[in-house]
Amino acid sequence: MIDPNLPLAELHRHLDGAVRLETILDLGLRHHLPLPAFDLEGLRPHVQVTTPQPGVMAFIAKFHWMTAVMVDYDAVRRIAYENVEDLKNEGLDYAELRFSPWFMAEANGLDPAGVTEAVVDGVAAAARDFDVRVNLIGILSRTYGAETARRELDALLRCRDHITALDLAGDEVHFPAEWFRDHFHRARAAGWRITVHAGESVGPESIWSALRNLGAERLGHAIRAAEDPALLDYLAEHRIGIESCLTSNVQTSCVSNYASHPLKTFLGRGLLATLNTDDPGISGITLPYEYQVAAPQAGLTPEKIRQAQANALEAAFLSEAEKQDLRDRRARH
User: How many CB atoms lie within 10 A of CB 41?
Assistant: First the structure.
């Protein structure tokens, strides 16, 4: 289902949700952490989702062992490096990896600025080694509140030239976008692009707020946009990218099954919707799985799947010259 003539790009993958099970086990054993199991299959149900969760925050709880093994900056650097190696192994030409330095630092009392630097270092080294183009998106974890988000933003801005965009993620229900207006004003002033998790757990009003208050150019999930025809028209007219994550949305119970996911509707209305993994280490998936298994179950025709693949390059936070370079590289291969 993946068109080999088009670059394969992913726009919504959490680096801290893409930690290898083998790495969790290795770091856990090496640092004598109280792992719930000491073999891969025993560990798997504690890290990966095996049945639908009752909501987004229950899904996020699965991050526990992924962040618990981020015991020092070398561990963070290793995890970042392996993220890019996994992109190469999945056949990707380009990806935007997003991460929350506060969320990653918290479990072991690390400095979020040091975490940011370790992520930047690990990703840069792997991008060179594996010849994969990667841009980084910093996340503000709204769940910690506006004041902590300011400190998280300060940590990200320490590496501003190595970060492409800013995102807002976490508890959408209790921490609305408008609380973070000033943070995103600072991000835009720094020259960063803007993507926001919105319309995953809250209705269309959350998406409108992300657009109006934060200047969102892309939206993470945006499932609930389907409830507002005027919003769908706006997203289509303004070419606002939608980062759809089929398997994740089923696992968080934001949709009841693949067939009820609105991605088919989005693509049918000409929206700039894309296919993504979200947290592949938790979901136990790859991007090819989303194209080859999840998308057909969501009712996408081969033509619509190809459109989603093309949309990912259009919506990427890249210059036109950089997009053309990816097309040229794919053509040569």
Answer: 8
pLDDT tens digits, 133-178: 999 999 999 999 999 999 999 999 999 999 999 999 999 999 999 9
Number of Cβ atoms within 10 Å of the Cβ of 128: 10
* Ordered structural domains, the chain, with CATH: 9-332 (3.20.20.140)
Quote the tokens at residue 319: 């210059």
pLDDT digits (tens, 9 = 90+) for 75-126: 999 999 999 999 999 999 999 999 999 999 999 999 999 999 999 999 999 9
Look up the pTM and report it: 0.97
CB 9 within 8 A of CB 313: yes
Alpha helices in the chain (DSSP H): 21-30, 40-47, 56-60, 64-68, 73-89, 101-106, 112-130, 146-157, 181-189, 204-214, 229-237, 246-251, 263-268, 280-283, 287-289, 295-297, 302-315, 320-332
Residues 6+ apart with CB under 8 A from 147: none
Beta-bridge mates of residue 169: 141
Catalytic residue among 96, 200, 243, 290: 200
Q: Are residues 15 and 119 in contact, defined by beta-carbon separation less than 8 angstroms?
A: yes
Q: In a 3-state reduction of DSSP, which class is residue 220?
A: strand
The helix (run of H) or strand (run of E) holding residue 135 is: strand 133-141
β-bridge mates for residue 197, sequence order: 220
Handedness of CA 278, 281, 285, 288 (dihedral sign): positive
**Which one-letter DSSP state was computed for residue 318?**
S
The contacts of residue 319 (CB under 8 Å, 6+ apart) are none
Active site (annotated) includes residue 22: no
Q: What DSSP line would sit under 141-178, residue for residue?
A: EGGG-HHHHHHHHHHHHTTGGG--EEEEES-TTTS-GG
